[in-house]
Amino acid sequence: MIIGFHGCDLSIRNQLVNKRLSFKKSENNYDWLGHGMYFWDNDPERALEFARFKKSLPQKDKNSIKTPAVVGAAIDMGLCLDLVNSNSIKLLKSAYELLVWDIEQHNQVLQKNKPLKGGEDLIFRYLDCAVIETLHSNRIQNNLPPFDSVRGVFWEGKDLYENAGFKEKNHIQICIRNPDCIKGFFIP
Q1: What is the reported pTM?
Q2: Calpha distance 130→127 (Å, rounded)
Q3: pLDDT digits (tens, 9 = 90+) for 107-127
C-alpha cells in the first residue's frame, strides 16, 4: 500500500472523495508512464504544484483547472511495472526493441520525447508512452497477466546546486491502470 496524490480541479477532487466520479484513465500519447490515472508518490505539495502549472497553461480544454486542488488515494499497487527494479527495466528495454522492429516493418518513424516549448525537461513523453503501451499490449497478446500499475522515478527541473545529482523537481510518479488498485480517495 502507498499513498498517492493527484493534482486536479477542486470540483474533481470533491466528486472523487464523495464517490460521484469514478476513475478516469488518461490516454494521451505523451503520458510519461503510459495510460492510466496519475499520482505523485507521497507528495501532496508536488501534486498541487502540477495542478497550478496546468491551470497556467494557455490552452484551455475540457480538463482545465479553475481551482487547483489535490486528492489523496490509498493505493494497492498490485502487479507493478516498477521502473526502479532491474527486471522491469529489462522488460521495458525488450519492449523498446519490439517497438523499433514493428516501426521498421511498417516504414514508420519512431516517436521522440520532447520538451515543452522553451524548456529542457522532456515533458511530452511520446516515445516512453509508446514503449510502455507496447509492453502492455505484448503481455496481453502472450496471455501474461496485465500490469495493474507502473512506477517511475524522474529527475526534473534545474540542478539544486552546482554539480548536483539532485534536481528541484525530482519525484516518483505512479500510473494506475487498474481502478481496483485504488482503495479510497481522501482530502489531504
Answers
A1: 0.92
A2: 5
A3: 999 999 999 888 889 999 999
